[in-house]
Amino acid sequence: MYKKSLLATAMGLLSYNAISASQEADSVAPEMSSAYQQKQSVVANDYMVVAANPLAVQAGYEVLKNGGNACGCLNCCTNCFGTC
C-alpha cells in the first residue's frame, strides 16, 4: 500500500513539473533577430555547401571537390569546429 501511494505521489509531482515547465516556456518571448540580410538565391549544377561559417563551407567544398560524398562533407564541416 505504501509503495502504491509513493508511486502515485511521484507520478503526480513529475506530471506537475512537466505541465508547469511547458507553461513557463510559453510565456518567454522569442529571441530578437540579429543581422539578417536578404541575399540573392544561388543555383548550383554539381554540388553546394551551405554553413554559417565561411571556413566550414571551404572545408566542405574541398571534400566534395576531391570526390567525397555528402556524409563526408557534413562530418568535415561539423568537426572542423568541434561541434559534432
Structure description:
The chain has helices spanning 2-26, 54-65, 70-79. With 84 residues, it is mainly alpha-helical. The chain is elongated and about 65 Å long. 8% of the residues are buried. The model has no long low-confidence stretch (mean pLDDT 75).
The number of helical segments is: 3
Work out the helicity level.
Answer: 55-70%
The total count of strands amounts to: 0
List segments where confidence is low: pLDDT < 50 over at least 5 consecutive residues. Answer: none
Judged by helices, strands and strand pairing, the structural class is mainly alpha
Which whole number gives the mean pLDDT?
75
Strand content bin: under 5%
Distance between the termini: 48 Å
What is the CA-based Rg, rounded? Answer: 24 Å
- Biggest sheet details: none
Oligomeric state, counting identical vs distinct chains: single chain
- Strand and helix order: HHH
Shape: elongated
Précis, in short:
The protein is an all-alpha fold and 84 residues long. It has a domain at 46-84.
Which terms would index this structure?
single chain; 84 residues; mainly alpha; 3 helices; 0% strand; elongated
Furnish the topology, listing elements before pairings:
Blueprint: H1 2-26, H2 54-65, H3 70-79
